[in-house]
Amino acid sequence: NYKMAKDVVMTNVDAEDAANVYNEPEPAEQRKKPRKTKCSSDRRFSIGAEDLNCGLLRACTAEMIGTALLIIFCVGSANTLAIADSGASYYLAISCAFGLGIGGIVHVIGGVSGGHVNPAVSLALLLQRRISLIRFLAYIVFSVLLGASLAQVFCTV
């Protein structure tokens, strides 16, 4: 059946384009293997001195912005809805606001920092040895102290 389907496709094209219709997949030995860099995350537990050269400031800034957005939009929506209405739709609206808010924030900053946003997630990843101690401490400082302060300044203005 596979050969017949390939022959049918081949009869509907010109002879010049026949080579472009079907390309055999490369054997597993010939596929390019991903390069390992010194910033790879597949290492054993370490204090994390190598993280200082791997875009740590960029990741921490993303965590700070993510935490600030979490507080502004998700927690802010709960406060706004508490004043406006306390009916049955109140709980559904808060759940939707948190779910969509967290999903969007993690989607935006996930490629830069991993999208932890919550220090409890960073702690869990530290205990599983997926992030280093320096990265954990930097995320805590940037997200809890700076991100929460940024959100507080934004909410009072």
Describe this structure in words.
Helix 3 (56-84) packs antiparallel against helix 4 (88-113), helix 3 crosses helix 6 (133-156) and helix 5 runs antiparallel to helix 6 (133-156). 65% of the residues lie in helices and 0% in strands. The protein is mainly α. The protein is globular, with a radius of gyration of 25 Å.
Proportion of residues in β-strands:
under 5%
Mean of all residue-level pLDDT scores: 76
Shape: globular
Number of strands: 0
Keywords:
157 residues, mainly alpha
Task: Summarize this structure briefly.
65% of the residues lie in helices and 0% in strands.
Write the layout of secondary structure elements.
Blueprint: H1 2-11, H2 18-21, H3 56-84, H4 88-113, H5 119-127, H6 133-156
